[in-house]
Amino acid sequence: MAEPEFYARVSARAGVSEASARALTEATLRTLAERLSGGEAADLSEHVAHELRPLLARARVEDPQAFGYDEFLRRIAERAGATPADAERGARAVLQALHRVVGPAEFNRAMAQLPREIGELAQPAPRV
C-alpha cells in the first residue's frame, strides 16, 4: 500500500484530516518501534511503503522499551500534538491499516510482544 493510500485509510478510519492522519501515523509507528524488539520492528518495516520504513527502523539488537497502554497513547498524543481521544482513534486506525498491509501471521507475531490492550486496538470495533 502506497504512503498516500495508507494516510487516506487512517484518515477515514479515525475520522481526522489527512494532515492529522499523517502525524498520527508517524507517531504511532515510532512508538510501536520503541515497544517492539528491533528485529520485529524491522520485519514489519519490510511490508510498508518505503517512506514509512524509517519510522519503524531500529537496530535489530535493541531491546524494546517496557511500557503499557496508557504510556503508548501518551507518547502518540505528544508526538502527534493530538488529544488523548484522537491518539487512541489514530492508533487504532494505524494498527488496523498496518494489519491489512503486513498480513496476519507477521502482524500477530509483533502484537504478541505487546500488552493485550495495545494489541486489541488492532481489532475491529464491535458493531452495536
UniProtKB/TrEMBL annotation:
Do you know which Gene3D superfamilies this protein is assigned to? Uncharacterized conserved protein DUF2267 (1.10.490.110)
Pfam families attached to this UniProt entry: DUF2267
Q: What is this protein called?
A: Uncharacterized conserved protein, DUF2267 family
According to the entry, what is the taxonomic lineage of the organism? Bacteria, Bacillati, Actinomycetota, Actinomycetes, Micromonosporales
